[in-house]
Specification:
mainly alpha, globular
Length: 621
């Protein structure tokens, strides 16, 4: 007689909120919207104001979300995936508040809160529609890698192990508390220095420039990427007197006022090489897919007709809002919408192969093209470029999330709904969060491009490099562009040359075999890769921010790499995949530092608004 089948004991959540039920999805969405999304949104928004770029919240949301879905067993990974999808959409949209900051810098009166939310919502919905429309090509047929999507998929699989989950949450939590503690200390040092009657020492001045966000960001990327920023920043510092003498910058200007143009040029030059290779690789993928059997489906097929209707509806809504409410001429809106289709494909392929989504390049190229066609109004250029920035951010993010879902076998249509809700809430959070930061820290409303002297006083610690970059490019529309275009052209040549050399050296089989021989060859490889022929994508950071930020960024990378070098690799079970770098201890601590400082600064801003009696006005619209 056969033994009776014993059903596994269900947890409380499995009994009360079974997988797939309405209550289950309401539960997951509530956590994503009320906890994970705002946490990622605060972090992304603050990073853009403090530095000028943001780290996606997929890893943070995946880890914290897994603490809930762990109780659903191995199938809980799908729920964690849905939550990180929504939370990442909220964070990406919240980071787009820099566009509102750019409006203020350019002297544009801030439109009403409801109008900004509507505009962001239309762009976001339009962008996710294009992203979903391209998913069958980039994810299903070409099966691009999407390294971050792969990492998140591996993380969600691994976090079904309760020991690993506890360790990851503990490390991340320690980083968050560390970020808060360090931020409190630095804040108090800054307040104390303001009360000094004499000039503080150089060491104390440098200590006051420390930022957990900058240091933590360096820890995430590591020394190979981070140290080149110190070199470029140092070159800019040395060249500053020459730049002043030759009229490239003013006496009070930092080197980055022209350095960011050169840095953008190096990125564009490197992108020319990479996009050419991406096109070649994409053609190879297409041919390989045609020759191979069709890949297996992992969910409902994409409803192309429905998506076309979706894209058309939101494209028309976007055009109506932009032309009728924001007074942008229809021709420029149509141009931006058409370019959104082009750049989402280009940026999607770039993200899928290189893990780089060049959203700033999409904005800058769009503005430059508009300028070549006769546009001279920076405000119109900003509104047009906004369509590219937001749509490429959320659309490519959607493709990456689809790649995660494809690997996990998650329901694609359900994931789309979570992302759609994330965009809706993200549009609201982007505008409210921007008002909190700009009203809580009035220095963020001052145009640092036109008033560089503020960087030494009240603006210390606020780089706003993305806003700085956008405003700087938009200012070229109505001014003499000779020097600007000359510097950018030089940057393009340098970036193009470096990237060609990098491809020739680092892809060479003989070099790959040589660099692994011993410690000396590895050191030479590091020096070449990180300094002598450093990637323009990495080194350009030194041209976007002040020297102090470059140094702390580089030190963070060095510390993380030294720790990783000294740490013994953890054993991997037979047949199991090694943990992705996103789950390394240094990466989690770096992410925690960023989140910790973001929360502390948000508290400072809210406290300031409350004391001034304007918090209620912000929340009331």
């Amino acid at each position: 007689m056969a033994d009776p089948v014993v059903e596994p004991k269900q947890t409380f959540l499995q009994r009360k909120l079974p997988i797939g039920s309405i209550g289950y999805h309401v539960f997951l969405a509530s956590i994503a919207i009320l906890i994970l999304g705002p946490l990622g949104g605060v972090t992304a928004a603050y990073m853009n104001y403090a530095l000028g770029f943001f780290v996606g919240g997929q890893v943070l949301a995946g880890i914290l979300g897994s603490t809930v879905t762990y109780f659903y067993g191995p199938e809980g990974k799908h729920g964690a995936n849905y939550m990180q999808t929504m939370a990442a959409s909220v964070a990406s949209m919240a980071a787009m508040g820099v566009l509102i900051q750019a409006m203020v810098w350019l002297g544009m009166e801030r439109p009403p809160t409801w109008l900004l939310i509507t505009y962001f919502l239309c762009i976001g919905m339009f962008g996710v529609g294009i992203g979903m429309l391209y998913t069958p090509i980039l994810v299903d047929k070409l099966q691009l890698t999407y390294p971050s999507g792969l990492a998140v998929a591996n993380i969600l699989r691994a976090l079904t192990d309760v020991r690993l989950l506890k360790k990851s949450v503990g490390t991340l939590g320690g980083g968050i508390f560390g970020g808060i503690a360090v931020s409190v200390l630095v804040h108090r040092v800054g307040v104390w220095m303001e009360g000094l009657k004499e000039k503080p020492s150089a060491a104390l001045t440098w200590a006051a420039t420390f930022s957990a966000v900058t240091f933590g960001g360096g820890m995430i990327v590591g020394a190979r990427i981070a140290v080149s920023a110190i070199l470029v920043g140092g070159i800019g510092l040395v060249m500053r007197p020459w730049l002043i003498t030759n009229g490239y910058i003013g006496p009070d200007d930092p080197y980055r006022k022209i350095g960011f143009i050169f840095a953008l040029g190096t990125i564009l030059g490197a992108a020319i090489v990479d996009l050419s290779l991406l096109g070649r690789d994409a053609l190879k993928k297409v041919r390989a897919v045609k020759a191979a059997a069709a890949p297996a489906d992992t969910g409902p097929k994409t409803n192309v007709k429905g998506l076309l209707i979706w894209v058309a509806f939101w494209g028309i809504a976007l055009a109506v809002v932009a032309t009728q409410m924001l007074n942008v001429p229809l021709g420029w809106v149509v141009m931006a919408i058409v370019l959104a289709f082009v750049f989402q494909m280009i940026n999607g392929i770039s993200q899928g192969i290189t893990d780089q989504n060049p959203i700033s390049s999409a904005f800058v190229v769009t503005v430059l093209l508009m300028g070549l066609l006769g546009l001279r109004d920076p405000l119109i250029g900003l509104m047009g470029g906004s369509i590219l920035l937001v749509s490429c951010t959320v659309g490519v993010d959607m493709q990456q999330d689809r790649s995660t879902g494809w690997r996990l076998g998650s329901d694609r249509s359900v994931q789309f709904r979570y992302q759609m809700l994330g965009v809706v809430f993200g549009a609201v959070l982007a505008v409210i969060m921007t008002r909190v930061f700009l009203d809580g820290f009035p220095v963020l409303t001052k145009n640092l491009f036109e008033h560089p002297e503020l960087r030494l006083t009240e603006a210390r610690g606020w780089q706003s490099a993305m806003t700085y970059k956008f405003v700087g490019v938009l200012n070229t529309l109505n001014k003499d562009q000779t020097k600007t275009l000359g510097v950018m052209g030089l940057g393009v040549v340098v970036g193009l040359t470096i990237e060609i050399i990098r491809k020739a050296v680092f892809k060479n089989p003989k070099y790959l075999a040589w660099k692994a021989k011993n410690g000396t060859t590895k050191a030479v490889d590091f020096t070449l890769d990180a300094l002598i022929i450093a990637s323009p994508y990495a080194s350009s950071f030194g041209g976007f921010v002040d020297f102090e930020s470059s140094v702390w960024w580089g030190i963070g990378g060095i510390v993380a790499s030294v720790i990783a070098w000294r740490r013994k690799p953890e054993p991997v079970a037979e047949g199991a995949e090694p943990l992705p770098e996103d789950m390394s201890g240094t990466s989690l601590v770096g992410g925690g530092l960023i989140a910790g400082e973001s929360l502390f600064v948000l508290w400072i801003g809210l406290k300031s608004l409350y004391e001034r009696g304007v918090l209620g006005k912000i929340l009331g619209g």
